[in-house]
Amino acid sequence: MGEKVMVDFPGFITRDSETRHLLVGDDSHVLLSNSIIAEIYRRLFASLGYDETGRIIYESAKKGTYQVQKKLIQSYRVTLKNEEDFSHRISRLPLYIQTYGHGKGKTTKRGKEFIFEVRDSSVANSLKDIGMDKPVCFFLAGFFAGMAEAYSELVKPASYSCIETKCAAKGDSYCEFRLSAGES
């Protein structure tokens, strides 16, 4: 048997039947709320500026997501048979963010790129009032890239990057992300 991997989850987890958001059955657990995330963004923008904030959040989300997902893949003994299985798994990423209340999404594949359309991005909606004419959903972009890298190792390891090309915080009707494979 392989090494056991611990995964921490709050107790008494269930889902709201309408929104499908995760719910916790008692108040002894803290879930990271969208308002907390928005406040972190605001403080980082004020102290570090746009570019450095974007870099830190994107790289942190990408690395953290990759590490956690890799452990989950090992724990649940996830396998992918081929590139088609990989593409199917990646196309489902917007459903994962919807589960946690970060927006509602869908995926389109254009050539080798995955395009994620996210409506009601919690970060973008929370930061509309700051009047920034730039994308702000660095966390989601990092999440998408980290997930893709973790799953790619099951088929054909590759480095992934994700950029936000549209953002509701700057007035677009939805947020759009382009996920691309680079050199491994």
Structure description:
This protein is of the alpha+beta class and 184 residues long. The protein has a single domain (34-181), classed as Muramoyl-pentapeptide Carboxypeptidase, domain 2 (2-Layer Sandwich), CATH 3.30.1380. Helix content is 42%, strand content 18%. It has 6 helices and 6 strands; from the N terminus they run E-E-H-H-H-H-E-E-H-H-E-E. It has helices at residues 34-48, 50-75, 83-91, 93-99, 122-126, 138-152, and strands at 13-15, 22-24, 104-110, 113-119, 160-166, 175-181. The protein has a 4-stranded antiparallel sheet, covered by helices on one side. It is globular and about 45 Å long. The two termini are 29 Å apart. The model is unreliable at 1-12 (pLDDT under 50).
| Largest sheet descriptor | 4 strands, antiparallel
**Helix count?**
6
Q: How many domain units?
A: 1
User: What is the spatial order of strands in the main beta sheet?
Assistant: 3-4-6-5
Q: Going by CATH, what is the homologous superfamily? A: Trafficking protein particle complex subunit 3
Please give the CATH class. Answer: Alpha Beta
Q: Give the helix level as a range of percent.
A: 40-55%
Note the overall shape.
globular
Give the integer mean of the pLDDT values.
Answer: 86
